[in-house]
Specification:
The protein is of the alpha/beta class. The protein folds into 2 domains: about 5-225, 3-Layer(aba) Sandwich (Rossmann fold); about 230-295, Alpha-Beta Plaits (2-Layer Sandwich), CATH 3.30.70.1560. It contains 10 helices and 14 strands. It has helices at about 45-50, 75-80, 95-105, 110-125, 140-150, 170-185, 195-205, 220-225, 270-280, 295-314, and strands at about 5-15, 20-30, 35-40, 60-65, 70, 80-85, 160, 190-195, 205-210, 215-220, 230-235, 250-255, 260-265, 285-290. The strands form 3 sheets. The protein has a 6-stranded mixed β-sheet, sandwiched between helices. The chain has a 4-stranded antiparallel β-sheet with strand order 2-1-4-5. Strand 1 and strand 2 (about 20-30) form a beta hairpin. Helix 3 (about 95-105) runs parallel beside helix 5 and helix 5 runs parallel beside helix 6 (about 170-185). The two termini are about 45 Å apart.
Amino acid sequence: MMAPAIALKSVAKRYAGGRVGLADVDLEVPAGRFFGLLGPNGAGKTTLVGLLTTLVRADRGSIRVCGFDVATQAVAAKACMGVVPQEINFNSFEPVGEIVEAQAAYYGLSPRRARERTGQVLEQVGLADRRRQSAWGLSGGMKRRLMIARALVHRPHVLLLDEPTAGVDLEGRHTTWELLRALNADGVTILLTTHYLEEAEALCDSLAILGQGEIVARGETGELLHGLNVQTLVLELSAPLDACPELEGLAIRRVDRWTLEIDLPQGMEVNALFERLGVYGVRVAGLRNKRNRLESLFLQRIAERASASQGAGT
C-alpha cells in the first residue's frame, strides 16, 4: 500500500509567548491529490508548511512526507518536496535561468543536467523566453511562476504552495491555476494554502479548514461547500427603491434606497434571483458577497463544534 504523500499525527507547536501554531493536528494527504488547506490569517497554515519543510520544529507528534520522517530522515523528506513560499525569496538581479540552475545544483544535479532541467521547467511555466533576463523585470505573476519552476527543477513528488497567488492579478492567477492543474494531472501531489475559498473551490479535490491551530472541518470539496447553505449578497441598484420588495422564500433587507441585502439559498442561481426581482421593477447595477464565503463556512463550523461540545457536556 502506497504511503500517504503527507501524514501528520498529533502534531503540536506553540510559540514563545503562548501563541498556538498547531494543536494536536492529524492530517493525511494521499498521493496524487490536490489538497487545499484553508483558514483566516493566523490559523496555522504557514506553521504547518514550516513544520513539513523543517523550518519550524514541532513540540510533539510525527510528520512524514512520502513515508520519510522529517525529524530523522530530513534529507530524504526534503528531496521529495518542492516549496513555493509566500514571499519572493530569490535575488531579483540574477537572470531567471541562473536562479533555477542554482536550485538544481542545491539538489545535486550536475551542471549539464541542471541546464537541461532549467530549460524544461521554464518551458513548462511559460518563461522559456525570459531565461537570460533579470528577474527584476518580471511581473508579479511571472515571479510566482519562476518560484514554481525553481520548486519543480528536481522533480519533486509533492509541491507545497503557501498563498501562491497573493498579490497576483486576475490574469496571472488563472495562468497559475492552469499550471497547477496540469502538474497535478501529471501525478504531482499538491498542498495549497490559501484564504480564498474561490481558489480552493476551483482547484482542490479535498479541503481542510484550520482555525486557531485546529482543523475545524475537512472532507471532499463538494461535501464541505454543500454545508454552506446561504450566502448574503449585497445588490447595488440602478434606480432607488422606496420600499423593500417581498419575495417568497427570500430574506431581503433594504440597507438604503440604492442597496439591498439578500440571503441567497444554496442551489438558487443569481440569474433566477434577478428575474424575480425584475418582475417587481428592481434592476441590479452590481453585486458582491457581504462576507467572504470562507469566513462564512469557517464561522458555521466553529458554531457547530461549540454546539456539539455543549451537548456533550450536558
